[in-house]
Amino acid sequence: MRREAVLELLRQLEARKTTPEAVAERLASLPFEDLGFATLDHHRSLRSGMPEVIFAAGKTPEQVAGIFARLAASGVSVLATRASADHFAAVQTTVPQAEFHDLARCITLAQGGTPTAGHVAVVCAGTSDLPVAEEAAITAEIFGAQVTRICDVGVAGLHRLLAHLETLRVADAIIACAGMEGALASVVGGLVAVPVIAVPTSVGYGAAFEGVAALLGMLNACSPNITVVNIDNGFGAGYVATLIARGPRPA
Question: Which one, 20, 132, 194, 201, has least CB within 10 Å?
């Protein structure tokens, strides 16, 4: 449940448009909901400003569909990451308005008047990094950020990145996705005055070690405005970038 929904419920009670019993019944499932195979944290939106997200990998299509439907019924925007076409087919049977983002492997449902969360730029070094970059972009968008995508601007052709410098400098937060040696994050960090969330991807040849080389390179970046998430964790980067771009929560 969103903070705005709770406030509206209390306003209705104050105006005597509802009863204390009705409010109590509505709030009964607020902390969490036990589905047997999952316990949904409906209180998360009130605590952190963004609702619980479904990690679909390892879950059956029926489980993902069940969780998705209950989150949707609570009125929040819903995001399922690492989802397959089978997951989406099951979700559609209960929430036909849901959308599937094949490249990002995400299922989304936008609803509930998500607040505007500033401007996030998502930059990727190469086309092979796009699935991770898209997961980050979709995550930021579903939670209210304006997202600008800048693709295939790795350090092998640095002039491509510099052509987007004006866009980068007006963003509230930047996500830099790169495999190989992961140098893109250091370059971006040295050009801007905002936080840069570096995402190492598992793109590269043998000694890239499925993203470990990029991870270590990003962790050792000399630009002090860089922080790093796990390998291929576009979702984590998108989530944090949105919180940064949104700014302080109102009291």
Answer: 20
